[in-house]
Design goal:
This protein is mainly α. The chain has 14 helices and no strands.
Length: 326
Amino acid sequence: MRGLNLWLFAAGLVAILAACLLGSTPLPPGRMLAAVVGMGEVADRVIVWEIRLPRALAAWLVGIALGASGAALQGLLRNPLAEPGVLGVSASSALAATITLHFGFAALSPFLLPLAAIGGACAATALLAAAAIRAQSMTTLILIGVGLSSFAAALMSLLMNLAPNPFTLADMVNWMMGSVANRGLPDIALGLPFLVLGLGLLYATRRGLSALTLGEEAAEGIGLNVRRQRLAVVFGAGVATGASVAIAGAIGFVGIVAPHLIRPCVGHDPARSLVPSALLAGLFLVFADILVRVMPGENELKLGVVAALVGAPIFLLIAVRRRGLA
């Protein structure tokens, strides 16, 4: 288990270094390493510290947030198809960001957009947390999340339909597709405290997730406070997801795919899958963003599009196998 985590962490660091090497202006390893430690040519330092390194770190951290949230929600709901978007937190966070773009608030300060995304996630999380305390079953919580997600998506469609000009519409569409392009260290620093808070809460729930594999009644029988467990997982996943949306916009399917690939390696234990799922999702998004940057073409693909192209077929495969159709 520890070896798997160390291997995935090391692979993530290698991927980040590879992201610093590759791009429209290739950097030899020596020049790249010199720029990383603050030496070398000024142009190399600008490329590494202002463009490539922040972008790679953003992709890695967003993947970590989504992978851990997906693993925790799958353990809580005992459903391999669960992921951060299933409870409507991603859609609510993206809706808040879209509102700032539609009404021009984002132009007032570069921090308003990510703060709005985090605020939208926190608002949705508060609603879900209240529902988690009162809900008699997880089915009720899932239905509330689906309804919240659908309503947020409808409002976003309305805002895009009423966009005041083509430039605002383009900004809204780009945000909904998900991307780490043009992200800087200040953008990461703004979302990082919320990301750490969410991940810390999820990690603290790991023993309860293992107990829930026995069923809610059996878990309560061995002393687990099921409602408190629901509250902690929902709040942790909501805050971590909100931070990821604040950094990169809406990116789907990563929270499903990474836990699904990790689960057989850890004996299908939700507690043991949290950390490796997070690290694998981070690794996947860094490689996906490298692919986005090096692909030929005038228009750069969005990271969320690449993640969906890879994740959606795997999602369908999981669903088909779960229903016994294959």
